[in-house]
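TASK: fixed-backbone design
INPUT:
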């Protein structure tokens, strides 16, 4: 097995990855989520010293839910077959599948990129729900205190697993507050 933090490249361009995603996903919500996770992953690649791998991180983020719209009951399982058939390299396939760890499979996130994906997938969904509560509908208004308040409310954005978010923070060796604050900064960095 290769070094989990080794430089990662991909033959896929962003446009080619988007074409693959939109072949299997049409819903505006899912496409928006894919772009949000892509941009969040790109932010973290730069912030954590993997700027040369930004495209790779972004493409993994974009494709992470490629199977969700058509095969929700096989999420992170169907993707493995689908991406292999599409000729997507094994490292992307594995990374995409790893965000289903301890939910639908036993493919544990190893590379820091996989751990970030695992942690921010659910969290970006929660942040998006918080943003919708603001009159401005702007991520610029997000702050740690308001997000933590909503995080504690299990009925708010109930589909966003708090356990997965906590587990993601633990895998990264970050506090929950640090993960939330850093992900807020990520989302704010690309909102126009």
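OUTPUT:
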């Amino acid at each position: 097995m290769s070094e989990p933090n080794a430089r990662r490249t991909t033959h896929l361009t962003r446009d080619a990855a988007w074409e693959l995603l939109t072949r299997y996903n049409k819903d505006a919500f899912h496409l928006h989520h894919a772009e949000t996770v892509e941009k969040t992953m790109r932010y973290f690649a730069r912030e954590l010293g993997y700027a040369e791998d930004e495209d790779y991180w972004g493409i993994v983020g974009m494709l992470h839910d490629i199977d969700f719209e058509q095969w929700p009951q096989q999420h992170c399982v169907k993707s493995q077959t689908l991406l292999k058939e599409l000729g997507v390299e094994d490292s992307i396939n594995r990374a995409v599948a790893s965000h289903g760890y301890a939910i639908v499979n036993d493919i544990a996130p190893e590379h820091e990129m996989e751990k970030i994906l695992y942690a921010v997938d659910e969290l970006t969904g929660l942040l998006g729900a918080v943003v919708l509560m603001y009159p401005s509908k702007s991520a610029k208004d997000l702050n740690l205190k308001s997000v933590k308040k909503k995080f504690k409310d299990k009925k708010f954005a109930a589909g966003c697993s708090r356990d997965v978010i906590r587990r993601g923070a633990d895998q990264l060796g970050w506090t929950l507050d640090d993960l939330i604050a850093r992900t807020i900064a990520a989302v704010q960095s690309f909102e126009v």
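COMMENT: The chain has a mean pLDDT of 94.
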